[in-house]
């Protein structure tokens, strides 16, 4: 609200992105419920081995005689061994307490993902320098002065699923500071390819927000990256267009004339689709296999195991009347919108650099999503206060100048 009073928010363009920050939890204590149960069983087995070994060492006089001259260094060996056992038993107790009331953590794809014993609400996230145990701070910043409009720390690596919730936060905050009923009507919101999904685009359209969220392959169609794309092998695989659909039998015919039968409906990330699969017998002797099946290490491994790979088609089922994903692909290929999208990094990335590097928020010191979110939002407030400093100083200077000027006029 202070930034709005100082005219620091343009409301013209904004960018959304996530900043992955480590939490006060060890990634070694991460895993699915099944994985943690196996770890518990291994620790129990390990404790028994150590206790049995200690008993054998206590009974063996020959070992005691050999270690006698190193008594000063070794100290009370029994105490050291007991400390080792106590430390492992403490870990076991912690695991038992966690597993007693633990429930599987479900990700955006509907499947179980890794949880953490220390902080169950944090996530194992792939960052720029490897995997970390932490939170993803999803933030929306204004283009004018990089003022943070809304933000939230979430315990998931993928921030794409948080897009509808962030739109609600953004709309609520902008209503408060502008007083408009539809504050997002004239704003252009930009996001990276991680936010590209039909659900997110449909949600933005419902709220009347214009967005630029490119598909993951948009750079392959960009002439600017022509030299980079030359080094990549262009896919020569047969696409869905090369297969003929038989409506009566609900099946597809491949370029070699073999049938791909319907295998049911499956969930593909944020979308659903119908699965069609060929038989291994047909694909094993197919002369077009090199062009139809993907060349990958997994395929070679299957061949070693005498398992012939099968061609599979996933036909996405459209849930909405209008296919906004296809429209967005055409939109991002427009030079005008590509030029606008080039501003995204300039808007949002300096915000994260300022908070993590300049302000020192490179690791959360608290646990649980609620506390971490409060800690992150306090740092974001400090970031916004920093944006207010210079305009306030200029305001004060101009007031002093006006007072001096009026004083001089009065004296004359």
Shape: flat
Number of strands: 15
Name the beta content range: 15-25%
Q: What is the number of independent domains?
A: 3
Ranges with pLDDT <50 over ≥5 residues?
Answer: 296-305
Keywords:
3 domains, flat, 19% strand, five-stranded antiparallel β-sheet, alpha+beta, six-stranded mixed β-sheet, 412 residues
What does this protein structure show overall?
There is one protein chain. With 412 residues, the chain is an alpha+beta fold. It has 3 domains: 2-24 and 117-232 and 323-387; 33-103; 240-316, no CATH class. It has helices spanning 2-5, 33-59, 61-67, 71-74, 77-101, 163-178, 198-206, 226-231, 280-284, 289-292, 297-304, 324-332, 335-341, 344-358, 369-411, and strands at 13-22, 30-31, 105-106, 112-113, 115-116, 123-127, 130-142, 148-154, 188-191, 210-212, 244-246, 251-253, 259-268, 271-277, 312-316. Strands 1, 6, 7, 8, 9 and 10 form a 6-stranded mixed β-sheet that branches. The radius of gyration is 30 Å and the shape is flat. Mean pLDDT is 84; it is low at 296-305.
SSE diagram, text form:
Elements (H helix, E strand, L loop, with lengths): L1 H4 L7 E10 L7 E2 L1 H27 L1 H7 L3 H4 L2 H25 L3 E2 L5 E2 L1 E2 L6 E5 L2 E13 L5 E7 L8 H16 L9 E4 L6 H9 L3 E3 L13 H6 L12 E3 L4 E3 L5 E10 L2 E7 L2 H5 L4 H4 L4 H8 L7 E5 L7 H9 L2 H7 L2 H15 L10 H43 L1
Parallel strand pairs: 1-9, 9-10
Antiparallel strand pairs: 1-7, 2-5, 3-4, 6-7, 7-8, 11-12, 12-13, 13-14, 14-15
Describe what is shown at a glance:
The chain is of the alpha+beta class and 412 residues long. It has helices at residues 2-5, 33-59, 61-67, 71-74, 77-101, 163-178, 198-206, 226-231, 280-284, 289-292, 297-304, 324-332, 335-341, 344-358, 369-411; strands at 13-22, 30-31, 105-106, 112-113, 115-116, 123-127, 130-142, 148-154, 188-191, 210-212, 244-246, 251-253, 259-268, 271-277, 312-316.
